[in-house]
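Friendly challenge for the regulars: who can give me the structure tokens for this chain first? No prize, just bragging rights.
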Amino acid sequence: MITNEISLRPGVRVRPDTDGLVRVFSPFGGVRLGEHSRNVLDRLAAGPCDLVELLTPDVTGAHALLGRLGARGFLRTTMYHDGRPLLSFPGSPMVCSTRGQLVLSRFALVHREDDRLVLESSRTGVVVEVHDTALLNVLAEPARYPWAAPVVDVLAAQGFLVPAEAEHDDFDLAKWSPHELWFHTRSHAGDDGRPWGGTRWAEGRFEPLPAHRPEFPGPVVELSEPGVPDVPVVGRTVRAQDHANPMTLDQLSEFLHRTVRIRRVWTDGVADLVERPFPSGGALHELEIYPVVTTVRGLHPGLYHYDSARHVLHLVREDGPLVRRLADHATRAANLDRAPQVLLVISARFGRVMWKYQSMAYALTLKNTGVLTAAMYAVATAMGLAPCAVGGSDSGLFARATGLDATKESTVGEFMLGSAPVGVGPRERSSSQW
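First reply, four minutes later:
Bragging rights claimed.
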């Protein structure tokens, strides 16, 4: 027999507010709820509750409330088999309407995390804690264990179990190898509470590596130093921007034209090949640019897509909360106190490269992103603008803002751009710093 126990996740607190409402708060967000939710919240705050008892008729609106709390990540569910804990996961139990033969998703992964065994998938942010290895048998052969039907429903709703051919018949999923999609999803910020970014996790545990690599013991060949260089400077990072005199639409237009416009399209007999101002693996040029405009003279704030074939901007979403959150995320990632005038979100249409390449396509996309970033630095520096690459992005937020399917197109880089402060102009080609 399968039973469900509901509890508040660690770090979640409940307290009454001064206006009669109830506040639920946690390290990953908060919400205020009406007085009608008090009964359920008080019981959850007191400790784990049996789901059936919590959903008794005398508890008004409990089902809807649990759904809302689960969606916000405040709850934890533990499923028991004959009184023994089988698995735990954040949220409340969901039921999947999918029927037919189910198999373990090829994107699912079971691994050890500290002293726990966990089940994860690169297609979902859910982390399932495995308490009993009997669950592994259910994952391997879902139809063989009738007693596990409620568990199978939950795992199917979370994307761990899928219809037999679902991930093979759909190009948008078939093109991804498990390790590539895992790397893509786990290297972007998300709402699942994972540590992300510059956490300095190793401080106090491991010594940082020195800047200079230890020397090899072999013979040394002395190299001459050049005099005044005659090569163009690659570029430089300028975090500060002149917000009193923001960049213009003409400047943004010139920058995009010099970096990512399509010069030529031809075919190899099967696929379209592209020429742009920067090189790209296989001449496939899967990268797209989405300017998030905060302050540009001559252009309304909003999220745009740069059509590199026609050299025009298409408005994707007018200025609003989602657009501002994209800019705010970059602001925090770059440790700035004000949003950049323009944030260029670099996305990839993964099918362009994954149709041809296997196992290394995503790595190729990241290399292409690095080449484009270097080109952006060089052009922005030559134009006297303030360029600054951003180390991370929120792919889920970008998907919500654009409405795009993240398996088809998602973020792989970000680049801030704006007018440079007074005194910071175009870099001279000859410089003593080189």
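The domain at 1-93 is CATH 3.90.930 (Outer Surface Protein A; domain 3). The longest strand covers residues 409-419. Your move, everyone else.
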